[in-house]
């Protein structure tokens, strides 16, 4: 070994005992108190400075400063900001200080006062230590004896190069080497008495037993997290003030920092509630916004003084995978450096795909796997859904609607097969943090540097078995404020729901030629928003279900699904399609399922379901003091007896009504681009427009599918380039559909910079866009403050004059030379002086 690789501890006798330290060594001291650690640091720092070494002190503890020498560089790092920010900041300072720097770190045990988790201390050491080793540094760490779990000590022992026990007995210091990597002597691993530069090895059994007789090193210790929650159970028997203090501490660990949501939780949750939530958590850390939103909504309804909702509430028995497991998964698989590189502006998109692929194929630690098994054993073979529940999700201002994945586990097969499906689902949710839409969302809200800690919510799927299919009777999305007031008689404050038969996936995702039932809760039986004379055509035709035999989420026809519903009268949801039934008989068909039309007429007219949903939305919104968006399921015994399950609740981002806007009267001879009454969303607006991007309906219809996707990608490029301008986007059918035959299949990230969008429908040409309201796409629109117009070309009171735009110069050539798109399909015009005006009271809109 080269002599220049050897490093002194500052204690010459001990250097001889362990054959000195080496460049690259991480040195961990187990100590009884911080003063003992300081005694051992002082000679190390003095010797390093004497040898002209650069010494860095990393300060984060609550204890007194350990290093006072002026020549030492000190960094103060805030552990309160959480594991990811803390570990990333230290990674970057190590990178900055470079090769052969010497470090002193505060006691790692002090991190417990901020993180309350042994698991995360082990994670921090595991990501920090190898990087220090790579750079040929020497670093001192300390942990307090008899505080940390054996698994934490084991991870530290496995990762560090040198592990030393430091005892103070009768005012004398003893060092007991436990691990000294790549060095050995016959007496190295005996305890040693340290007296200045003199070292005495305690080899005699009588002396060693006398030394260790009062030192307890074999008692099993709980994770500090479990210690805190165990103490909380004892506090349940104490006075209200003590319970209140303990509750807020536990909420800071499970829910997050002070916020409007935190205040609401503090108002409604008791200490018993929080302890019960913690009892259903796998691992440690936050349970995430989606879990908090669901639990808070349920508690608000349960706490109603008049007990209006209790008899209608379906019980829940969800589990929560703590956010610390997400970090542990990344650390244990060795991806932390990649994660740090991805969190920079330069690497944000560059490394996301690689990290996503790795996350999809990693391994979970054995102790975490065992907890997953226990969760699965609890649910048996009941279908479950694994849902994202990130720290920023479903909070005021950031709903992340549809940005992260949710995965159904039908939960069929052998225990091994069911376990593999659960693990795969969890990995899929974790990997979705690197999805393009999620990355764009965080970047555009200046959240990319924030810790986006991914917890997971595991819910039992609501519903029952109907032959091979599993589904709830109805599901949907409810909004407490109905901004889509297409008629002056509609009460905006009564709210609305999008209702489907079967799983609620069809209520939040657009489906080809399929329509959710849109219900204004003040007038639930009134006709739909559109002029839909053909009730069957504009109803739900497919039902999303979980197939037991196929072990997957799939779709079946309405008639096949409803034919096997045995536990309630089918006419609650559907009416027999007599016309089709007679026609089938005339054609000689026998043994066919009875044809139905899903109109929910009986449900909405003869049950209290709509009024209860109206009251539920109003009550949650009242408490939030803000409009809310709720996902729900409902299962019926009959029209009077049903159970509603609130599976998600979040604040609904809305744009205020703004000041009154006076819209000028124009006659038919005056030119304009768009004029309509109703069918717009976003309140009062007076918006100057700089550029209009118009997609021609006839030209678009004539394209093949590949070229329709090309239109979407081209529009994405244009809107990104013009993101600092005020943009109006006008096109046929549904923006954001996944099916090009229904409209332009843009991703929301491609149009998030526009100020207003218009969906043009034409019954004559077959473009009848279902309203965006309630879908994930809609949630993006209102969150991003994008004004929305649905234009029914050809209807009374509607003017739509594309010539107002297309007679101007087409600037499309700046973004591509595809001859199929130029002048035929996409028209980009600079429209300085154009304004978009709306008056929500008079329900009038004008663009000219």
Automatic annotation (TrEMBL):
One of its GO terms (molecular function) is metal ion binding. Belongs to the PEP-utilizing enzyme family. PANTHER family: PHOSPHOENOLPYRUVATE SYNTHASE. InterPro entries: ATP_grasp_subdomain_1, PEP_synth, PPDK_AMP/ATP-bd. Residues 287-668 form the Pyruvate phosphate dikinase AMP/ATP-binding domain. Catalyzes the phosphorylation of pyruvate to phosphoenolpyruvate. This is Phosphoenolpyruvate synthase. Its cofactor is Mg(2+).
């Amino acid at each position: 070994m080269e002599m220049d690789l050897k490093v002194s501890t500052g204690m010459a006798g001990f250097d001889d005992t362990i054959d000195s330290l080496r460049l690259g060594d991480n040195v961990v001291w187990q100590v009884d108190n911080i003063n003992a650690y300081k005694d051992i640091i002082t000679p190390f720092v003095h010797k390093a400075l004497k040898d002209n070494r650069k010494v860095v002190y990393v300060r984060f503890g609550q204890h007194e400063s350990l290093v006072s020498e002026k020549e030492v560089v000190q960094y103060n790092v805030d552990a309160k900001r959480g594991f990811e920010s803390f570990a990333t900041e230290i990674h970057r300072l190590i990178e900055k200080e470079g090769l052969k720097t010497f470090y002193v770190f505060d006691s790692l045990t002090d991190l417990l006062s901020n993180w309350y988790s042994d698991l995360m201390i082990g994670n921090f050491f595991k990501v920090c230590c190898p990087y220090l080793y790579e750079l040929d540094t020497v670093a001192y760490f300390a942990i307090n004896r008899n505080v940390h779990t054996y698994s934490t000590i084991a991870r530290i022992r496995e990762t560090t190069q040198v592990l030393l026990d430091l005892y103070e007995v009768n005012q004398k210091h003893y060092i007991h080497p436990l691990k000294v990597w790549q060095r050995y002597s016959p007496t190295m691993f005996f305890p040693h008495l340290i007296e200045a530069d003199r070292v005495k090895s305690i080899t005699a059994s009588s002396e060693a037993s006398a030394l260790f007789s009062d030192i307890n090193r074999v008692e099993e210790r709980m994770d500090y997290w479990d210690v805190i929650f165990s103490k909380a159970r004892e506090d349940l028997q104490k006075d209200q003030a003590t319970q209140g203090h303990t509750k807020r501490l536990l909420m800071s660990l499970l829910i997050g920092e002070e916020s409007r949501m935190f205040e609401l939780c503090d108002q409604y949750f008791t200490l018993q509630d929080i302890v019960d939530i913690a009892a259903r958590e796998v691992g440690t850390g936050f349970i995430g916004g989606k879990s908090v939103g669901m639990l808070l909504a349920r508690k608000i309804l349960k706490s109603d003084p008049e007990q209006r909702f209790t008899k209608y509430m379906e019980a829940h028995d969800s589990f929560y995978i703590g956010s610390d497991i997400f970090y542990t998964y990344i650390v244990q698989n060795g991806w932390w450096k990649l994660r740090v590189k991805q969190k920079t502006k330069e690497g944000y998109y560059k490394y996301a795909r690689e990290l996503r692929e790795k996350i999809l194929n990693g391994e979970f630690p054995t102790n975490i796997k065992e907890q997953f098994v226990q969760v699965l054993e609890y649910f048996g073979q009941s279908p479950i859904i694994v849902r994202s529940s990130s720290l920023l999700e479903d909070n005021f201002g950031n709903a992340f609607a549809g940005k992260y994945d949710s995965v159904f586990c039908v939960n069929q097969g052998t225990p091994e097969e069911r376990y593999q499906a659960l693990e795969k689902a969890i990995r899929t949710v974790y990997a979705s943090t690197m999805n393009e839409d999620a990355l764009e969302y965080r970047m555009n809200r200046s959240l990319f540097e924030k810790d986006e800690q991914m917890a997971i919510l595991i819910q039992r799927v609501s519903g029952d078995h109907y032959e091979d299919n599993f589904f709830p009777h109805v599901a949907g999305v409810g909004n407490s404020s109905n901004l889509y007031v297409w008629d002056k008689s509609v009460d905006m404050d009564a709210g609305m729901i999008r209702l489907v038969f079967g799983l609620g996936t069809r209520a939040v995702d657009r489906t080809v030629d399929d329509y959710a039932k849109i219900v204004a809760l003040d007038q639930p039986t009134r006709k739909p928003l559109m002029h839909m004379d053909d009730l069957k055509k504009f109803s739900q035709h497919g039902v999303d279900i979980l197939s037991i035999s196929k072990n997957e989420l799939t779709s079946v026809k309405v008639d096949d699904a409803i034919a096997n519903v045995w536990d309630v009268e089918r006419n609650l949801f559907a009416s027999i399609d007599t016309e089709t039934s007679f026609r089938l008989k005339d054609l000689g068909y026998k043994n066919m399922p009875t044809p139905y039309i899903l109109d929910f007429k009986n449900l909405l007219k003869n049950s209290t379901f709509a009024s209860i949903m109206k009251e539920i939305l109003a009550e949650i919104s009242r408490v939030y003091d803000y409009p809310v968006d709720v996902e729900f399921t409902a299962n019926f015994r009959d029209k009077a007896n049903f159970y509603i399950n609130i599976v998600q609740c979040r604040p609904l981002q809305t744009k205020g009504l703004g000041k009154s806007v006076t819209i000028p009267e124009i006659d038919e001879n005056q030119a304009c681009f768009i004029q309509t009454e109703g069918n717009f969303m976003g309140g009062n607006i007076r918006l100057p427009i700089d550029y209009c991007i118009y997609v021609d309906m006839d030209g678009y219809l004539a394209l093949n599918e590949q070229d329709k996707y090309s239109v979407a990608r081209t529009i994405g490029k244009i809107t990104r380039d013009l993101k600092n301008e005020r943009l109006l986007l006008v096109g046929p059918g549904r923006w954001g559909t996944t099916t090009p035959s229904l409209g332009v299949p843009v991703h929301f990230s491609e149009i998030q910079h526009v100020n207003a969008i218009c969906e043009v429908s034409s019954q004559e040409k077959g473009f009848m866009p279902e309203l965006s309201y309630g879908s994930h796409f809609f949630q993006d629109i209102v969150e991003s403050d994008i004004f929305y117009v649905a234009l029914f070309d050809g209807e009374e009171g509607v003017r739509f004059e594309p010539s107002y735009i297309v007679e101007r110069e087409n600037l499309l050539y700046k973004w591509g030379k595809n001859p199929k798109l130029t002048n035929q399909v996409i028209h980009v015009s600079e429209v300085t002086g154009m304004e978009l005006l709306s008056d929500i009271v008079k329900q009038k809109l004008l663009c000219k």
